[in-house]
Write a structure and sequence with these properties.
CATH architecture: 3-Layer(aba) Sandwich
InterPro entries: Acyl_CoA_acyltransferase (IPR016181), GNAT_dom (IPR000182), N-acetyltransferase (IPR051531)
Radius of gyration: 16 Å
Number of domains: 1
CATH class: Alpha Beta
Strand order of the largest sheet: 1-2-3-4-5-6-8-7
Pfam families: Acetyltransf_3
Order of helices and strands: EEHHHEEEHEHEE
Family: Belongs to the acetyltransferase family. RimJ subfamily.
Domain N-acetyltransferase: 10-168
Strand content: 25-35%
Number of helices: 5
Mean pLDDT: 95
Structural class: alpha+beta
CATH topology: Aminopeptidase
Shape: globular
Distance between the termini: 39 Å
Helix content: 25-40%
Largest sheet: 8 strands, mixed
Protein name: Acetyltransferase
Low-confidence stretches: none
Length: 188
Amino acid sequence: MGDPVPLTTTRLRLTAPGTSDVDAIYEACQDPDIQYYTTVPSPYTRQDAETFVGLVAEWWQAGTEHVWAIRPGDELVGVVGLHHISEGGAELGFWMAPSGRGHGYMAEAASAVIDFAFGPMRLERIQWQAVVGNAGSAGVAQRLGFQLEGVRRRSLPRHGTSGAHGRADGWVAGLLSTDPRTPQHWGL
């Protein structure tokens, strides 16, 4: 339903990933943790990165997903997005390349995306899910104020090597537009 909306924070620029980002996306998605904890294909090919960049433009136009590249400078170090946008809600998803970890970039970028979701988009709820054991993702969600809602058994698809598929248990948390965005401690 529209063109990508760039966002900025104190340290970051968030823009839609484009063809110039294909190599950085491909390299980042070689990380075993990204392949294990997210739904990216495994093995991840350059063609997968090219396809992803093409889909991002389609999703923005359709209004079904909004995806941003996270840039502390010119180079992409991660991706954050609002997925499954419908009826006042969306799901927050993200990954960070190893070179971008440990700087607080993801929490900063995701906070800007949440501001956009609850502000101009007027969403009421954002859901977060992660494979049980993904402590990095859970840490970001807790810093953003998400409230843990539980574990959904075998709720998340897994893409293994050689096309093998399966399902993993997933942590689920939610953030409402009316919730205080204070850090949470889930005790996981």
